[in-house]
Structures are given as structure tokens and as C-alpha cells.
Amino acid sequence: MSGDGGPVLITGATGFLGSWTIAALVRAGHAVVATDLVRDTRRLDQVLPAAELAAVDWRVCDVTDGDALRAVVADAAPSAIVHLAALQIPACRANPVACAQVNVIGHINVFEAAKDAGVDRIIYTSSAAAKPRGPANAPANLYGVFKKTDEEIARIYWEEHGIPSLGLRPFIVYGVGRDDGETAAITKAIRAAALGEPYAMPFSTRSCLQYAGEVAEIFRRCTEARWQGALVSDLTTETSTTDELIATIRGQVPGAAITPSDRQRVSPSDGFDNGPLKGVIGDWPATSLADGVADTLRRFRELAAGAR
Ligand SMILES: NC(=O)c1ccc[n+]([C@@H]2O[C@H](COP(=O)([O-])OP(=O)(O)OC[C@H]3O[C@@H](n4cnc5c(N)ncnc54)[C@H](O)[C@@H]3O)[C@@H](O)[C@H]2O)c1
Quick one: pLDDT at residue 3? Predict the structure, then answer.
């Protein structure tokens, strides 16, 4: 059950990380209130058996609608909020105003709703995109600027209202259900190998490639923890290159037709610190790239075969 009896409320629940996080919470016996723009279990169906879906209480809610969100949070009386709702980089680049509304105003609405309902644990996803990089030593795009702004907003809600929050900075998370966003390319390469299809990587990079199952367990453990302050943390300090990814895939699927790219994706490749997160939940078992790729290959093959 949740640390203090109430359910865990998730925004962005139909998304990739939302689905994996719901599955981790349900398996651990938590009640879950799942919120998103629509009720769509297409991704959740890939990671949680249908029989276990009954534990999930779905509420349709747009995080840009502060009144609606406030009503849902007040009614659910959650012990913790996992705030994942956001637009990703391609959508953000295509429509910066809509992205600011979801990624910044929606973020403020979550803190306002938590303040009014007395929720004292918010776990939200910032992003490695918030980290400074390049000649300007700053986020490289508006998505990163908005995520950095979210971290500052969380700090102000701690300083002015005493709401503890934990901003986690995923980098590239992969696993079944990752079908959206620029860095979904990692998952798409593994899926193509599982299905015997060719895939051309759209970029080369050195990044943290982290398995969704590990990230969901981290979120689950955060909902059961207590801390003070507005903490911000990386999720891992391990990095891999896309060439290492391709070699790992080929080690498990000899002859996989994954073509590397000449386009270098500018990313921070060092200076990661997951100390603040470890201070909250302690150590956890990390999933190696080989194990994460193996599990993802297996799941894609099972899904293609019509099994879970
Ligand atoms: N997946 C990654 O590798 C990664 C990396 C860094 C940061 N993140 C962050 O983690 C979070 C979850 O990522 P994801 O991969 O699950 O993304 P996703 O795109 O799969 O899910 C985002 C969800 O937010 C919902 N949403 C969008 N606008 C909304 C609105 N106005 N109201 C309510 N819901 C809305 C979408 O419907 C979607 O289900 C996001 O904040 C993302 O920026 C993810």
C-alpha cells in the first residue's frame, strides 16, 4: 500500500513511463489513480496483464486545466503524485506554446493542486535535457529550458510552501511502449532486430541508456520514501554509445541490420550525479545494457507472437 494509505496519482499515465510505472506500482500492491488526456491502455497492455488492470482508477484530466486537476487531486487524496505528463522534443519544437502550456503551466498546476490537497510528495520528470551543454553552457532547446524551469518552480514551492519534491532527470529510457520522441530510436532499433527488420539509426551519441523496468522501480521506491527539500537528481551515471548498443543487439541477434548514423547528437556525456536519488531510496539493482536489450527483444518477440 502507499506510504500513508492514499493511492499514488500519476499524470501522463497512458505514456511510456506512465505505463511502466503503473505496472511497478500495481505489482507492489499500490492503489493507482491514473490520469491523462484520454484513457488509452495500449502501452500498459504491453507491460501489465489485463487481470491486474482492475487495480487502476482512471480519470481523464488535462494538466493545463488547473481547476479540473485540482478537483481530481482533491478527490483522490493521493499519498504521492508522480507527474509525467509532458510534450516531448519533436512536439515541443513544432509547437513551443503548447509545450510551455503542458510542460510549464501543467507543472505549476500539479504543485498548486498538491498544495491545496495537502499532498507532500511530488516526484516529477525533469530531463537530462535540462543539463547545461555546448558553447552556451545551457539547455540546447526549449524542451530543456522548460524542464530546467520546472526544477526552479519546484524549488520555489519548497521554499514558499514547504512541498517536498524530487525532480528526476531521465536521459534515454528504452523498452516496449517507447514509440514517441526523438530518442525512441534506441527502442526502435531493438524492436527492428527482434522482428528481423532493418533500421537506420537517426543519430550517434554517448548517453545514459536506461531500461524502463529499472526506471519504473525507481519511481515506485520514490513514492514510498520521505525526504525534505526540492531535490533534483540524475537517474544513473552509466553511459553507453549507440555503437555499443548496436554491438549489444548484434551479440544477441547476429546479423541484425542496424545501420549507424554519421549525425552526432550533442549530449552531456559526463558529470552525472544520482547521489540525491540514492540519498532518498538507497541503492537499487541497475539493469545492464545487455540485460535490458535481452528483455526488450524477448518482449517484442512475445508481443509479435500475440503473447504477453
Ligand atoms: N522516455 C524518456 O526517455 C524520457 C527522457 C527524459 C525525460 N522524460 C520525461 O518523462 C516523462 C514521461 O515520458 P514518456 O516517455 O512516458 O512520454 P510519453 O510521451 O510517452 O508520455 C507523456 C504523456 O503525457 C500526456 N500528456 C500530454 N499532454 C497532456 C496534458 N495536457 N494533460 C495530461 N496529459 C498530457 C500524453 O498523453 C502522454 O501519455 C515526460 O515528462 C518526459 O519529458 C522521458
Answer: 47
